[in-house]
């Protein structure tokens, strides 16, 4: 059963390893747990629904609780406190495009607001209902999760928009294919959600971002369905896929997605390499990207993330041995862990590995084989579960991410980390901050920063801590040539910063499109574009 | 000096080889040249300009003649006949973004129409002025052709929009870089034009289409400049680069382009391989793309294009010898020539070549080394010059292109070729039609079809032949899951077919954007979007 107030399946627990709490306590002080609310107490607080009955919509309280919040840290705090704020008045479960069209028509007749809902994994407030005089319906696409068609020759799969990661991959795998899109939220997040929020997966180096994988589909709008045909490429004017990609439910409801798939690769492996210091590590990964070494995955942890990972890995004896070996090979204090993957035919993976090893050696890299890579692969979707254990231990953890050009990567990383490290200084609170690069490109890289801090004495004060941290980092990002999001989207949490990135003219163009498709602002109002924008 | 009534530099002549005319005569009858008009006679027909004097605008007749037409076949016919139709009232030569903004303001004050003009190489009627009660100014960006900044670390170059292919590459080469964008029009076409019309270069397999290379820039609009910052990737809502890519001058004037560049490769080579027949050839190139063999260029001629190329290559003795050898190796009648390139480090190119040869061998490919590849590389920008010699010999030649998914490539190719072959049957005229695939993708391929036909007794009747051919093929394309253009854009010639591809809702969205940026329809009206669309 899925957790109602946190990440993932209740049966899955990722323990904080012995020593992990000590490591954090030494860094930012001992943990301070806050009490969790019970589901019963939350259900008791759900107000009466304002909806008239409709066969596709349920107004059951638990459904409304389970669709009220995503997985951002403020969502987390609200769920743990039991103070959810606004609940949707009901949840719709369409099973077809026809159902979606009926719901759009119903929304017009009944003056409703609709929030398209995929896996509910947003970490930027995409699917949270806002207080409204109009009743709000969360439109869950979870029943539209099937592989509808597979063109094996063109390697195009047609899916329902609500298929989550495992549903996408298992249906494709049965036919010998993969989408290759593996965001950390993969267990729960959905194809439609990936498209609507411009997601990127851990193996984007090989398979591309969702922008590349999304070949076409159907967007149900108040003006009728917008069908986007599939072409391998086209020069016929602006690409209408951009009306769907990153639209975050503002222009329409995605009822069908066609994606570019690949045959399952013959071979795949992940490796760990330690670089002696950050400057050399940075140069090494930039070279890997710019020299087009055909890797499928790459993640470079900075020194503090490397240290944190090793401290939280458990097995202190084995780690000490590893560190001794690394020190002897020239990767001591300040070392940075690079994890990379190769995927493809036997020949391709062997060639890629050889090229990568050769290049990394020139930067002082110490190759450690597949052990750490396998460890990464095994834990690749488990990090969100760790949030639960950290929370129980009295620590709040959040992540944020951006991307910038290579000439700015190091400077932006330092500024973002600094802004977070000192954001709670006025209260005398320390923050544990570390970063990795992933999704590297010839032009630059994404930066993914994790910050751990202690809850305050109350939920309200903890939320205020988060607000100060998030605001400090977000401002730093947009004022220093970073995008407000490389892979999480805009939602409500990043919307205030979008103007800085898109400019007034760009925002006005997006508003013009929103007004064109949804003049009554019935679709997810407040996400992506704020009222005051333009 | 650039030809005023055809392609390229007057000093460059690509002779039709001995036997070439015979080959065509046997196919479609002997050539029928039409008389060419003189420049003097055309200059005499240029009407008085309706413009008031402006320091950035010239109203000289020859400037107006040289900016009135592109390089489509109807443009060609108009220029050769000397019946140009509408001339711009003047040509502006801005030297800065500031100049462009002045011209936009002037256009508003004086109620002018502006046509942004790059290299004038459009083959779809992008830059042809339409008859209008408002005076028309062609806004040539040729003086804004400089490399303004190179961020070597991020591999981002900032250019003036008017830099043509040789200007782009020579300025980058001096610093050790390349853009890697080589459309056939490369000698004359410009960076801004590539962006505005979604161009694709011959080595897009390695460097990507212009959509990938275009990282950001500035669009000068009537509502002010839209500055698009560079990010390696972003999830922050719809990508505003799409307001520039494929905008064909409708939303604004590009005043600055930032592109992703690459270090000059250590090694590059092109090879020729003959596949025994079309079905196997098709499967082979699909496998190369879908198995991600890292080639930099690929072109597969169908049997008739292969035959035509060999016939027009000259050297009949050597060709006969080659054909004998190929026949002995299993590639006789019906054989298809595949040209491919590898680019990169020594190790990468060796690996890629090995993978490609191995794969092609499995499909019966006969490898012939670098001779035909070198021949292709040497002639890669010369095909447009051949049009001049064919015209002198009494043949009209035109090309058109589309792209479609692999499962439809063969069927669409046959339908397009058939529609062209029989389009003039009512007059008893034959048409010589052949096709190659290039720009292959995992999902599908572009199809590039060449058709040769004889001019009729008059220019008007010849234009009518072209119209019938173009219409037959264009309808076939959009009715059979092809895009109306993979690399030439929409302009005026393809605009009538765009609705079929984008749908009424998509067209309405584009119209809403055009109305947003240019409510008075001053910018290139009639290109991309027709009056009646939406």
UniProtKB/TrEMBL annotation, chains A, B:
<dbReference type="InterPro" id="IPR016166">
    <property type="entry name" value="FAD-bd_PCMH"/>
</dbReference>
<dbReference type="InterPro" id="IPR006094">
    <property type="entry name" value="Oxid_FAD_bind_N"/>
</dbReference>
<dbReference type="Pfam" id="PF02913">
    <property type="entry name" value="FAD-oxidase_C"/>
</dbReference>
<dbReference type="InterPro" id="IPR004113">
    <property type="entry name" value="FAD-bd_oxidored_4_C"/>
</dbReference>
<feature type="domain" description="FAD-binding PCMH-type">
    <location>
        <begin position="84"/>
        <end position="264"/>
    </location>
</feature>
<comment type="similarity">
    <text>Belongs to the FAD-binding oxidoreductase/transferase type 4 family.</text>
</comment>
<keyword id="KW-0274">FAD</keyword>
<feature type="binding site">
    <location>
        <begin position="116"/>
        <end position="122"/>
    </location>
    <ligand>
        <name>FAD</name>
    </ligand>
</feature>
<keyword id="KW-0285">Flavoprotein</keyword>
<dbReference type="GO" id="GO:0071949">
    <property type="term" value="F:FAD binding"/>
</dbReference>
<dbReference type="GO" id="GO:0008609">
    <property type="term" value="F:alkylglycerone-phosphate synthase activity"/>
</dbReference>
<feature type="binding site">
    <location>
        <begin position="248"/>
        <end position="254"/>
    </location>
    <ligand>
        <name>FAD</name>
    </ligand>
</feature>
<protein>
    <submittedName>
        <fullName>Alkyldihydroxyacetonephosphate synthase</fullName>
    </submittedName>
</protein>
<feature type="site" description="Important for enzyme activity">
    <location>
        <position position="299"/>
    </location>
</feature>
<feature type="binding site">
    <location>
        <position position="387"/>
    </location>
    <ligand>
        <name>substrate</name>
    </ligand>
</feature>
<dbReference type="InterPro" id="IPR025650">
    <property type="entry name" value="Alkyl-DHAP_Synthase"/>
</dbReference>
<feature type="active site" description="Proton donor/acceptor">
    <location>
        <position position="448"/>
    </location>
</feature>
<dbReference type="InterPro" id="IPR016164">
    <property type="entry name" value="FAD-linked_Oxase-like_C"/>
</dbReference>
<dbReference type="GO" id="GO:0008610">
    <property type="term" value="P:lipid biosynthetic process"/>
</dbReference>
<dbReference type="InterPro" id="IPR036318">
    <property type="entry name" value="FAD-bd_PCMH-like_sf"/>
</dbReference>
<dbReference type="InterPro" id="IPR016169">
    <property type="entry name" value="FAD-bd_PCMH_sub2"/>
</dbReference>
<dbReference type="Pfam" id="PF01565">
    <property type="entry name" value="FAD_binding_4"/>
</dbReference>
């Amino acid at each position: 059963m899925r957790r109602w107030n946190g990440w993932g399946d209740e049966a899955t627990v990722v323990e904080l390893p012995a020593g992990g709490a000590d490591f954090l306590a030494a860094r930012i002080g001992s943990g301070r747990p806050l009490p969790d609310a019970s589901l019963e107490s939350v259900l008791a607080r759900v107000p009466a629904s304002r909806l008239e009955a409709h066969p596709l919509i349920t107004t059951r309280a638990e459904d409304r609780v389970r669709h009220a919040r995503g997985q951002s840290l403020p969502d987390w705090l609200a769920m743990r406190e039991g103070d959810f704020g606004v609940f949707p008045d009901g949840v719709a479960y369409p099973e077809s495009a026809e159902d979606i069209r009926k719901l759009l028509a119903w929304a017009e007749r009944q003056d409703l607001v609709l929030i398209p809902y995929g896996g509910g994994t947003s970490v930027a407030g995409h699917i949270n209902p806002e207080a409204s005089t109009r009743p709000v319906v969360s439109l869950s696409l979870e029943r539209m999760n099937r592989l509808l068609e597979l063109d094996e020759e063109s390697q195009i799969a047609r899916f329902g928009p609500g298929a989550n990661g495992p549903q996408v991959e298992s249906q494709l795998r049965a036919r010998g294919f993969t989408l290759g899109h593996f965001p950390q939220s993969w267990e729960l997040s959905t194809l439609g959600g990936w498209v609507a929020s411009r997601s990127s997966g851990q193996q984007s180096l090989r398979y591309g971002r969702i922008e590349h994988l999304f070949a076409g589909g159907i967007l149900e709008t108040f003006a009728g369905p917008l069908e986007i045909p599939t072409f391998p490429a086209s020069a016929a004017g602006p690409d209408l896929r951009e009306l769907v990609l990153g639209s975050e439910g503002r222009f329409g409801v995605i009822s069908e997605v066609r994606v570019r798939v690949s045959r399952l690769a013959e071979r795949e492996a992940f490796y760990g390499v330690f670089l002696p210091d950050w400057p050399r590590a940075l140069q090494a990964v930039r070279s890997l990207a710019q020299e087009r070494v055909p890797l499928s995955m790459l993640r470079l942890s900075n020194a503090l993330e490397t240290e944190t990972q090793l401290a939280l890995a458990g097995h202190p004896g084995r780690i000490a041995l590893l560190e001794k070996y690394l020190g002897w090979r020239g990767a001591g204090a300040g070392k940075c862990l690079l994890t990379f993957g190769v995927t493809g035919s036997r020949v391709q993976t062997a060639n890629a590995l050889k090229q990568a090893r050769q290049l990394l050696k020139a930067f002082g890299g110490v190759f450690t084989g597949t052990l750490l890579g396998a460890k990464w692969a095994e834990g690749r979707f488990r990090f969100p579960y760790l949030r639960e254990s950290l929370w129980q231990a009295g620590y709040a953890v959040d992540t944020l991410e951006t991307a910038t050009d290579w000439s700015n990567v190091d400077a932006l990383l330092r500024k973002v980390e600094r802004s977070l490290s000192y954001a709670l200084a006025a209260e005398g609170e320390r923050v544990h901050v570390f970063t990795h690069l992933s999704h590297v490109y010839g032009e630059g890289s994404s930066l993914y920063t994790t910050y751990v801090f202690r809850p305050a004495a109350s939920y309200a004060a903890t939320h205020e801590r988060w607000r100060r941290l998030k605001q400090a980092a977000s401002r730093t990002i947009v004022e220093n040539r970073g995008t407000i999001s490389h892979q999480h989207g805009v939602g409500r949490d990043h919307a205030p910063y979008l103007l800085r990135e898109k400019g007034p003219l760009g925002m006005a163009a997006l508003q013009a499109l929103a007004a064109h498709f949804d003049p009554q602002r019935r679709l997810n109002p407040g996400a992506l574009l704020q009222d005051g924008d333009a």
